[in-house]
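Q: For a teaching session next week I want to show students how multiple molecules come together into a single three-dimensional assembly. I've collected the sequence lines for a complex. Could you give me the predicted structure tokens for the whole thing so I can convert them for display?
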Amino acid sequence: MEILIRDVSKDFHAEGRRITALSEVNLAIPANRIFTLLGPSGCGKTTLLRCIVGLETPDRGEISIGGEIVWSREKNIFVPPEKRGLGMVFQTYAIWPHMNVFDNVAYPLETRKIPREEIRGRVEKVLRFVQLEGFETRPATKLSGGQQQRVALARALIAEPAVILFDEPLSNLDAKLREETRKELRSFLTELRITAVYVTHDRIEALSLSDEIAVMKEGRIVEIGSPRDIYFESNRRFVADFIGRANFIAGTVAAIGGSHALAETPIGKVACRAGKGLAPGQEVTVCIRPEFIALKETGTPEGANIFKGTLESLLFVGEACEGEIRIGEILLVARLDPTAGLREGAPVTIHFDPGHCSLLSA
Amino acid sequence: MTPLLIAVVGFLTVCPVVMLLLGSFSRGLGAFGAFTVEKYVQAYTDPAFADILINTALFTLGSAAVATALALVLSYLNTRTNIPFKLLFRIISITPMMIPHILFAVSWVLLLNPTNGLINLVLNGILGLEASLFNIYTLPGMILVEGLLDLPIAYLIIAPAMAAFDVSLEESSRVCGASEFRTLTKVTLPVLRPAVLAALTLVIVRSLASFAVPSVIGMPGRIYVLATHIYRIIATGFIADYGLASAVGMSALATSIILIYVYRHFTAEGEKFVTISSRGYRPAVIDLKKARYPLFGFVALLSFLLIILPVLVLLYTSLVPYVMVPGARAFSMMSLRHWLAVLKDPLSLLSLKNSLFLGVAGATLGVILSVFVSYVVAKVRTAASGILESLSFLSFSFPGIVIGVGFMWFFVQTPLYATIWSLLIGYIATYLPYGIRPMTSAFIQIHSHLEESSRVCGGGTFFTLRRIIIPLLVPGIVSGWILMATMFVRELSLSVVLSRPGTEVLAVQILRFAEDGLWGRLSALGIIMILISTTLVVIVSRIGSRMGRMYESG
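A: Of course. Below is the structure for the complete assembly, covering every listed component.
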């Protein structure tokens, strides 16, 4: 089911101050896709999710799920959360501690007055799906974090909702378990062909799980796109910075020609991918991700984007070495081959592909 | 150190119980140790005993229901809604420390007694009635007053559970398709069940031990419960029969000990229900809309009944010559004669002196003992510290009057009998958990890493103690001292047994005034008692905050 959000705004009032949580958000969440709301804490992503599910009411605007309006200030419509027929996994999992696994998972069906026999079969099926067979009578207080997470997922799935919402469901798991669960969740959701709205502040979670990502900042949607688009193509500094590590060099546009543009920067002329709406003389920021900076073998340097510098520091992080390369006043971070036998203080020559070098308008 | 502490705490808690048990099989104080079951036969074949048991059951269960229901409403309003002036809830939760129970009970007698209760007099005047509308000397009257008195205990158990309640448990129920009502009955109340049951159990234990309300309100109405039944056996009539009192007391004590372990079971169950706490998202409070101010009015009325009205009634009664309807005539006759009478009364002055001594010396000794016990319980954590914890917890259940009878059997064998020291020992034994509890939580808050990092930074044992541990303990010490001192200044139920001529204390003196109907003097002495408690609280919290600051800057 498609979710449409039109001009939704919401303010919070706390201790006499007004805090804008959502500011004229417009969003179309496509059906049967995994859609992620990504942003730093306090950007309004959880508030938006809670508005969709009905636990929070916006101040203005309209929300419809699968063509049915569930909230509209103008038309005075408010469908309470229990009538929206959604599934949700909470950050704390919200497993009811006074019930066992079966009662927790069966709850949504019991509210729908489904016969006992059918409930039993469906609970068994969904527990098998989340790999918790045989846990029916386990008390909720005797579950590990990962198991609680699965029970929460089973409970969200059992009523076969058309939309399922996730509020940072992995943030309470430890790093190793988080990685495994992320993969599992991806395969569960792909298998189900369900509309999923996922809230997180973790960029790796967002990139690896989503079909589409909306990046939020201060109550607004900044950019929407596929994980690849967001990572490689974004021309906003906030997005480029938030979604991954990047080097930023301030400069001005010197020339534009075809698919490439030339920027004048403190390290020299840098050839970049030409963006839309650039004019010579405009102030821009050059963005290069550390993994695209490579060392060039000694010899006669030829081609674009070749610079000489010194390797100021070198940090071994296992799968790579993180080097800081000084070119004049500028320090660039590069991901280098850990087996290359580099030394701190050595002169180096670097280059990077103009295709991986973007110009940000701000 | 642990064995010594076990010996001290063991003596304080086990001695009265064992002496009570032995005493119940003895013929009398003079014939201790000669075995007989005569007193049990006499106690439990008394035809009036069934009525006493029924009264006790109705009284304790009724007060528990009143206190818990009010506490549930109050804590829900405080933690989950946008009701204004939330400071008031904090005030409600700490006032019982300021107003002694016996004065609270007396003030309600002054308001609602059938002969000349102020409210009755006023209503009779307005409505032109012959007979009074209300009679406090009834079981419902007792239940109402005891329920109000125990409300803070129930509130202090339920409010933290309500505050720790993860709202997403309710939200997920809504998302799963449950209505608000279904969420309330299937999720909210079941999750709060251990806290509610714990509050109910503790209030039952407290009201079973309560002596102020049954003596001031129940006895004039000839409604006897176990506590007043025991009092009747040892304090009225020709011969005080301690053997019989012990035999009756055994059932009260056994019930209390069982209930206190039931209470413990519920609190443990409640702790199991604590789930991963939600980070970051603060749940929206429920907007009461139009009900906001009416509900606040209800809370304000309750605070008025609990705090302001008792003091006002006592102040008024202490100034008028006899009970009369407030008005021009009453104001023209106001004088300080009751105050002067009290200040010239040698017994009142002696009781003042004794109570003040017991409050200050008892609380100080009690706090010192509590610091050591809590240290062992919270930090040493061996099998022996477990024993210590159970022992110190045991006295939490002690009904004062019963434990007083137990101590009586012990003290008559020693030179301590009829001295102020017997009261001091009895007080500390009975109220030790109130010192240990705040101190243990203070010790638990001092994470061992804080201590360890001081050691790593180069601080020796005593340096660490002086700069890290003691400053962090100050709040616990201060609140433990205040709690114990105020309880000792107003102590009644243990004192009515142990206090002898020469060792009168304030609350007992007030009970005597109440029995003699000297309401004016009673009120004057009562106000002095409240002033003493309040002054102690203010002085010690001042010292505490200054010490805290001194350590911060030092």
